[in-house]
Write a structure and sequence with these properties.
The chain is mainly alpha-helical. The strands form five sheets. It has a three-stranded antiparallel sheet. It is built from 23 helices and twelve strands. A hairpin with a 2-residue loop joins strand 10 (about 280-285) and strand 11 (about 285-290). The chain is elongated and about 110 Å long. Among the domains are: about 125-275, Rossmann fold (3-Layer(aba) Sandwich); about 370-430, no CATH class; about 450-540, Arc Repressor Mutant, subunit A (Orthogonal Bundle).
């Protein structure tokens, strides 16, 4: 029996050969220096913030080099796949304006872009390795693997399937193998590694620089019992056929480099350039750990959508993690699109960055303070439609009041920074809506006597209120009201002789502010008065 016949029995019904696929996926026609990068999430749930980070970096390098970025869904571990997982990934990345050149939706000459649809490709390459005696079937049971691990642990040796532990199956004759196959004994296909753990390999990582590893000597599984490849093997085949030039991924994969280099070498391929990104970390119990969707809500990109943290702020924050000089560039180029920033591997951290929610929220406040009131209204409306239907109806009904209120102290050199997320807008605007204004308490400050409060309000409204006042005229009238009621209209005079007065102009202004909003701190009171109008102001004063 020839090895080709042997391989046909071990992996039947393979439609094409390795040569067919190498001919099909020709080298990309790109300009010199163009980079081809991929993002390869698994459909195991919502997108991790680290995946979004990697996508931003991959897309950025591809774009600035006139290259290609593509999305490849890595679903070979189908036990972990969740329902509608692929669509969840596609929608999440689309929501963050990650624009790939090729993807399962867009298609492309190097597809399919879902690994489970590339099954024949992987099997063609595994079959070729079997023919060349570079891979072999393994019938090892879970119990046998556990026994090997126990023996290795007891002897304090390395854990894995290699050397003497793999020797028996490596040496198995074809006839013996085929007898087991005939009996229906399940098997996987393993790499027949030629590595020597005592030898060293050197990899030039684009971020971490010169990294040295022992050679891989493990006979890793490359094709599982279900006929699908392991991540390691699929990565080597796909990144070669899709002509990936740079692999940007989290540095938790750094320890896998020897296995991947071994696979590329065995397959006869040149490996891509690796760039291992420092992971986003959290501090827990005094220790740093990778941010986790299981433990940390902010590890899930859906968290930001639900809270209403704008995607633009999230992307800006992730760019501050990506390159150490990004913030300096932003300060120098405040009106530039962040896509114009040139990413550089040399400015990427080699150690993990601590996730800083307060920094993200500050970035968000700054971003939201700079957009127009109309845009702020529309973005809040879009968020509320999905996450707060009741507030959506209020916003829709009170469009002009909402925009006018959001515009208070916005168009200035130092705009207000009241909101870090759209979910905070309701708490900042509710008192401006007639149907919502039913306060349970008022934040009276120095003046709390009910009769004195009524006197101030009635005097102001009956004698000093004028709807057509400019802001300067309005404040002058408030001061005149103070003079009449025994409050200091001049703060300097009040500080010199406080005993001469009941209080000062700030105290009187606060009474008016609290009566109209129930809050002691609000945006500019004059603008609030102008937006509410006399009729609504009188209605509110009657509640006191």
């Amino acid at each position: 029996m020839t090895r080709e016949e042997y391989a046909n029995i071990l992996i039947p019904n393979v439609e094409h050969t390795r040569e067919y696929y190498e001919e099909k996926y020709q080298k990309r026609n790109l300009s010199e220096g163009a980079m081809v990068l991929r993002i390869g999430p698994s459909p195991t749930g919502s997108v991790h913030i680290g995946t979004l980070y990697q996508a931003i970096v991959a897309e950025g390098f591809a774009r600035q080099s006139n290259g290609i970025s593509f999305l490849r869904i890595e679903d070979t571990d189908q036990k972990r796949e969740v329902e509608d997982g692929v669509n969840l990934i596609l929608k999440s990345l689309e929501n963050y304006d990650i624009h790939f050149n090729e993807s399962p939706l867009l298609g492309g000459e190097y597809g399919p872009y879902i690994q489970s649809e590339r099954k024949d490709i992987y099997q063609a390459f595994v079959k070729d390795l079997i023919i060349k005696d570079l891979a072999y079937p393994s019938f090892l049971t879970e119990e046998e693997k556990a026994d090997i691990t126990a023996a290795q642990t007891k002897s304090k040796g390395r854990i894995g399937y290699f050397g003497p532990w793999a020797a028996k199956e490596r040496a198995m004759m074809m006839e013996e193998v085929l007898e087991k196959v005939k009996l229906g004994i399940p098997y996987v296909i393993r790499l027949k590694s030629n590595g020597d753990f005592e030898n060293k390999i050197v990899v030039e990582d684009a971020i971490k620089g010169h990294v040295e590893f022992p050679e891989n000597d493990m006979d890793i599984v490359i094709l599982k019992r279900d006929g699908l490849p392991t991540y390691h093997f699929a990565h080597a085949v796909d990144d070669t056929l899709m002509h990936t030039t740079h692999v940007t991924r989290g540095d938790e994969w750094l320890s896998s480099v020897p296995v991947h280099i071994d696979l590329f070498k065995t397959l006869g391929f040149a490996p891509p350039i690796y760039a291992h990104l420092a992971t986003i970390q959290k501090e827990s119990d005094g220790r740093r750990r990778k941010i986790s969707k299981r433990k940390d809500p902010e590890a899930n990109v859906l968290y930001y959508s639900e809270k209403g943290i704008p995607k633009e702020a999230v992307k800006i924050y992730l760019m501050t993690l990506a390159n150490s000089n990004f913030e300096e560039w932003m300060i120098a180029n405040p009106n530039e699109n962040i896509e114009n920033f040139k990413l550089d591997f040399s400015h990427m951290s080699t150690s993990g960055a601590l996730f800083d929610m307060e920094k993200l929220l500050n970035i968000s406040r700054n971003y939201l303070s700079k957009i127009s009131a109309e845009e702020m209204y529309q973005k809040t409306l879009n968020w509320a439609l999905k996450y707060n239907p009741e507030f959506y109806e209020t916003l829709k009904k009170n469009k002009e009041i909402s925009i006018q209120t959001l515009n208070i102290e916005r168009e200035s050199t130092k705009p207000r920074k009241d909101f870090a997320m759209y979910s905070e807008v309701e708490a900042g605007l509710w008192y401006m809506y007639q149907e919502k204004f039913e306060p349970t308490e008022y934040e009276w400050q120095k003046i709390t006597d009910k009769e004195e409060i009524k006197t101030i309000l009635n005097t102001y409204m009956n004698e000093f209120f004028c709807e057509t006042d400019t802001e300067e005229e309005w404040f002058s009238n408030v001061k005149s009201c103070c003079d009449k009621l025994g409050y200091a209209s001049n703060m300097k005079e009040y500080k010199q002789n406080p005993e001469k007065f009941k209080g000062n102009v700030a105290d009187v202004s606060t009474v008016i502010r609290v009566a109209l909003t129930s809050k002691s701190r609000t945006p500019n009171l004059y603008d609030i008065i102008r937006i509410l109008g006399k009729e609504e102001i009188l209605r509110r004063i009657k509640k006191i």
